[in-house]
Amino acid sequence: xxxxxxxxxxxxxxxxxxxxxxxxxxxxxxxxxxxxxxxxxxxxxxxxxxxxxxxxxxxxxxxxxxxxxxxxxxxxxxxxxxxxxxxxxxxxxxxxxxxxxxxxxxxxxxxxxxxxxxxxxxxxxxxxxxxxxxxxxxxxxxxxxxxxxxxxxxxxxxxxxxxxxxxxxxxxxxxxxxxxxxxxxxxxxxxxxxxxxxxxxxxxxxxxxxxxxxxxxxxxxxxxxxxxxxxxxxxxxxxxxxxxxxxxxxxxxxxxxxxxxxxxxxxxxxxxxxxxxxxxxxxxx
Length: 285
Fold this sequence. Notes:
Layout: E1 4-9, H1 16-22, E2 24-27, E3 30-33, E4 36-39, H2 46-52, E5 59-61, H3 65-77, E6 82-87, H4 95-104, E7 110-115, H5 121-135, H6 140-152, E8 154-159, H7 164-168, H8 174-180, E9 185-191, E10 198-205, H9 210-224, E11 230-237, H10 240-253, E12 260-264, H11 267-273, E13 277-284
Parallel strand pairs: 1-2, 1-6, 6-7, 11-12
Antiparallel strand pairs: 3-4, 3-5, 8-9, 8-13, 9-10, 11-13
């Protein structure tokens, strides 16, 4: 009998409540600072990252090989026979390739590693939905196909206060960083469907029209596929009040959605995004 583990990395920002409810395993990314290395969500939090950013440029690294091996051993010890690992986009990280390499040497556990081509709740939501589908009785092969379809059918948008940290971390071009710093313009980021690389599909001036623009971007996808069922997602980086406000607006505007998934941006992604992030998205079943 198949027992299927759902695994993701900490950049998926799967909240502890979802991890517990759906039995999702999380590999911690590494945050590199001047005083040493930290494990995202284990030995460092987003708030601690924001504090360190005031005086230094932080970097990140993929989960350690030891942590990946330990994770596979853990799920085997708990009786799992199969595992699906959903990772941060290969356009942003080497995590997917590293996990694939270690998975190829693993015995007694059939593993499928999935490039989400996304970030944060954009693929954290995929892990949650796969866990729900697994619990509904779908097989490993069915889940693999469903997961790859979810990758193509998920769209998330994030507004951040500045592109400075992305530019310093080498995750976005200097020209885009310059534009983001001018005239109080707030860039809205998303991920392309080829490699999951970051691009800027829209900008707004100031925070006033931000929530409306995020909702308009989500609406574009829902309007294109009106017959399909969908979930909504909301995420924030140290903006809990705006998060709640946006979530309520989305619920009111889209009462037919299957549900709402939310996230708080963790330490690893905060290294490149900083505080002041607000995001929304849609994922089609």
